[in-house]
Design goal:
Aspartate Aminotransferase, domain 1; about 15% strand
């Protein structure tokens, strides 16, 4: 098993354990002490470093990885489910078959992720935490909730993002970058009112996809969500 395959296995394990424990398990394993997120394939790299440290400290017979892969490991991780148990623990068939109305195959998506290939917005959403999904739903509701008689704001999900338009004009774009939920709005990133230190943002106007909505704001906390909702009301 090469390093990319090991990363894919560990990603799968984190997803399974997160589903069982109803929380993000990233950072909870013994090998996470060696994690450096700035490197390529961080989990696999940390796992290998932990193995090396364990071997140097006390040489022992290598223990096998979970039965659906074959490679030596000296650092133990929580029990991994067998293929049958793993299949039973997956999300309901309806959720596995589609994500945001787009076709979704979990195994294929995980293979793409392990190979470091780009995922679509719907695929990123399907693999996201419940917290991110809840924040996304609140942003979506705020954008599409218009008063009677006002022009409707409609959503269209593409490979890159979820775009909101009203009367042909782009009102907002929501993207997922890594584990970060972000909203782009048609506001001036250089405006004095947004540069008081209370609304940290990024100017993405240099990218063609964000020309109409250059103001990018991260929605990664309760406070971030509160401020994002206030910005939505401002542009509406």
């Amino acid at each position: 098993m090469n390093k990319a395959q090991l990363q894919g296995m560990l990603d799968l394990k984190k997803w399974y354990d997160s589903e069982v424990n109803h929380r993000d398990m990233c950072g909870t394993y013994a090998f996470c002490a060696f994690c450096d997120k700035s490197v390529s394939l961080p989990c696999a790299t940390a796992y290998e470093k932990a193995n090396e440290a364990m071997t140097e400290a006390q040489p022992v017979q290598a223990a096998p990885l979970p039965e659906f892969v074959s490679a030596p490991a000296t650092v133990s991780t929580p029990n991994m489910p067998t293929p049958k148990k793993r299949a039973a623990a997956k999300k309901p068939a309806v959720e596995q078959d589609s994500s945001l109305g787009k076709k979704f195959n979990y195994d294929k998506v995980m293979a793409k992720k392990a190979a470091r290939k780009s995922l679509t917005f719907a695929e990123k959403y399907a693999l996201s935490s419940d917290t991110l999904k809840d924040r996304y739903a609140k942003l979506q509701a705020a954008l599409t909730d218009t008063a009677k008689g006002e022009a409707k704001i409609k959503s269209r999900i593409s490979k890159q993002c979820d775009t909101y338009r009203r009367n042909g004009e782009t009102v907002a774009k929501i993207t997922i970058i890594g584990t970060s939920l972000r909203i782009n709005l048609p506001l001036d990133p250089n405006a004095e009112e947004f540069n008081d230190g209370k609304t940290p943002h990024i100017d993405m106007g240099h990218k063609k996809v964000y020309e109409e909505v250059p103001f990018q704001f991260k929605v990664n906390s309760k406070l971030g969500l509160k401020r994002a909702l206030a910005l939505i009301e401002l542009i509406k």
